[in-house]
Amino acid sequence: MEKDPVKIAQGKRLAEARKLAGYRSAREAALENNWPESSYRAHEGGTRTIGQNDAERYAKRFGNTTAEHILFGSGGIDAAAPPAKSAMPEPNATYPLPVTFSHKKLPVYGHAAGGMDDDGKFILNGQKIADVLCPPALENVVGAYAVYHTGDSMLPRYEPGDLLTIHPGLPVKKGDYVLVQIRGEDGDPPYGYVKRFVTKNAKELVLEQLNPPDGHSHTLRFPADRVLTVHRIFSSGIG
Question: In Å, what is the CA distance from 223 to each residue of 114, 183, 201, 220, 232?
Answer without folding.
Answer: 21, 10, 10, 10, 19
